[in-house]
Amino acid sequence: MSLLPFLKSKETAAHVVDPRVEAFLQDYSIEVMPRTAEKIEDFRDLLPAGTRVYVAHIEGTPIDDMVATAARLAKDGYKVMPHFPARIIKDKAMLSDWIARYQGEANVDQALLLAGGVAQPHGDFHSSMQLLETGAFGDFKRLHVAGHPEGNKDIDPDGTDAHVMEALRWKQAFSDTTDAQMALATQFAFDADPIIAWANALRDAGIRLPIHIGIAGPAKLQTLIKFAIACGVGPSLKVLQKRAMDVTKLLLPYEPTDVLTALAIHKANNPDFNVTNVHFFPLGGIKTNANWAIANGGNAAIPASQT
Prior knowledge:
12 helices, alpha/beta, disordered C terminus
């Protein structure tokens, strides 16, 4: 197989890679689901060795499928981070079983803890904080929790950020007591300005957790608008709506070049900026997103299968 699509060239036929974007994309992560992972013959042809791969747990997905996907990715040399959605975990016994299976079959030592997109809890848990309080993740090396650059109306229906900030202060305090590395993994957004303002506000409020910013990968505009509305994306949705009004851009696939470039420039000018990593949501497909990341300076010259 040709290495041409994966070579980290400073210059391609289409564009010159901005070194600030290249630096910003180092150690990026990406998200998969078992049903989308099944369509990938070999992840090592797409993702750099050691990439952190989140395995999203959607309600109704059997734990057998989640663990099998995690084991496959771990075997191929990836850092696997499965989701633990509190509201679909019935009790501590189920939580302990999931953890034991992930550790035993996939050697998992990192996790994303979140409430989960379910209105009514299936059992004892309704928040990531409750999961952390169980002590079940005591031997995990890395724990990520959710962040919301544009707010979360499920948590703060009045439009403020009061409850979100209270939860973040609790998580910051918890991070000070655990040996695990903690970070915020955020919902995706399309405009750098709200992200920068939010990140700075967290720092000013004493929230020191590193931020892994969610970015939607290349996709059809209609697809992104659908997901953005479903996921409650806030003011930056206007970026897509404005693009949809431009007939010359309507049929072109969206690429996250603008938002990533703006964030990368801000990071280069402000090294202490607390957005440290990029986390991709491959809404237009894993292959499309992975190839885009490599072509734009992602963190490997060749895919894992060639190393």
